[in-house]
Amino acid sequence: MFRELTKPFLSVLDDMNTLMMSHHSFLLGNWVRSAERLALNILDKYLFRFNSLNQVTLWGPNGEVSDYAGKQWADLIESYYKARWSLFFKYNEISMSQGVRFNQSIFLADLYKYVEEPFSWTQQQFVTEPRGDSFSLARQLHTKYRDYL
């Protein structure tokens, strides 16, 4: 039952990602690419890429100020925020199925280890050109969600 209740939430994230992907101002790929273009060599390119991703996620080597500069950008929603929420739901589902209390300390350590830190180092190629029509997508999403608003 819990899994069925989390699906709509994750679906909203998918829809947000699709909408953000429709406008150049909301593409993580443009942010990353602009940082990489400043590099004079391959090592700088990797460092600048890392810093561009780390700035909008962990904001430090260990997530000292996590989400301080968070953005609602395409690919960031899909590859980072959705992954974090999915892990949160998974750990809660495990806790409930085993009848044990949710261990936030273990969850946060695993979240950093399996989602947050790896994202800062990802070499995934992010979208740099808009996909879809923002107005049409917004109308579709309004129709889909208007009964919940």
UniProtKB/TrEMBL annotation:
InterPro entries: NAGLU (IPR007781), NAGLU_C (IPR024732). Residues 2-144 form the Alpha-N-acetylglucosaminidase C-terminal domain. It holds the Pfam family NAGLU_C. This is Alpha-N-acetylglucosaminidase C-terminal domain-containing protein. The lineage of its organism: Eukaryota, Metazoa, Spiralia, Lophotrochozoa, Bryozoa.
